[in-house]
Amino acid sequence: MVVLKNLSSQQLELRNRSRQFANDVLSQVNPAIKSLHTSRERFLATAPFYESLVKEGFLFNMIPQPFGGGATSCLDMAVMAEEFYAVDSNVSLTAFASILGLSPIFIAGNPQQAEKHLSIFLKKEGKPIAAFASSEPGGSANVNAPRPAVGLSTRIDAAKDGWVLNGSKQWVSSSCGWDNKGADLLCVSGRSELSETDDPEVSIVILPKENINIEVEDIFETVGHTAHITPRISLHDCHIPKDYLLGSLGQGKQIIEQAFTATAALVGVFAVGLMRAAFDFTLNYAKSENKGGLHRILDYQAVGYALSDAKMQIEAVRGLAYRACIAQDNNEKGAHELALCSKVYGSETAVKMITDLMRVVGVDSYNKDLPLSRYLMDALALPLFDGGNMGVRRNQYHQILMSDSYNSLDTLLE
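The line above is the sequence of Acyl-CoA dehydrogenase family protein; the predicted structure tokens follow.
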């Protein structure tokens, strides 16, 4: 089976539509938020743009076809992600984080749960948000740690008519919703029981807005993605029906790992979008500026070489990230490894490459009126979120390498 191929006609059309929407609509996000002072204000200012994204069917096209949406593959997601992220990171991340919020249902939900909880995300109207409440204050690299480690502190306790959830979450995209009363749907991880060996039993429940009892403790002022919010929230005595448990008790760790494997591949695509935007800006700058000299700066070898290196890095990361998405779609043996490569290499390459391009432009790139510093601040998040490269992703890669069955050739084309 050959897995590197041209995009299908439908994917080419999706790419063209995504690029047009990004240029027509998402290009207006930064001007709309530029003068606002807080993350909350900027996030609320993105609501009309997010609503347009939903209305145009892009959120629908991120939901897999078996669940009533339009997505046929992870590659479909990659096509949209590159075009959106090349223009605006904020609304883009709100949309893709909503799909992450729904992914536990895609992975472990039964047909009844999918029908009940996905309907508002399939309607192409309004501005519905979902969030996967996994990360906690203090970090979540050790969610499965046994006692006496804290590990995952959120509790999912059995009650007469279902479950009662209590706990705090942090760095969960849009989890407070537009109204600070919670997202339209949360999937929440927590400890449900302790086994006889004190190993934690991590489970995941669906928490719709009507069941949320939320306190927004803080909304962080982040250096990048400044109109996308990742608050600290507390959930108090949230009563959940018994059939809102996803999968079985103790299945949470596997669901978390599956959900964040697909997103790892896409973070590499986010990196491509930011790198592409930074390259295009710097190339045009180098063509038009002479810095007071006789020649445009592109005519100098050092600048030309730096731009050549930058473009090579874009092509390398794009090839890796798209390859990782295709491996996900084909359920290949090396899919998890390739996803980790996409996430770690793509995110860290983006930070370095954009920094190098700022050196090409010079001190003017430090001015917020030019976009390079914004691209860099956005890129800085990529190695840190969606499972930090040091605390989570390299650890996952290490575990793969330590397996007795590991074969370094599993990532080759089949």
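Note on the example: The chain is about 45% helix and 15% strand. The chain has a mean pLDDT of 93.
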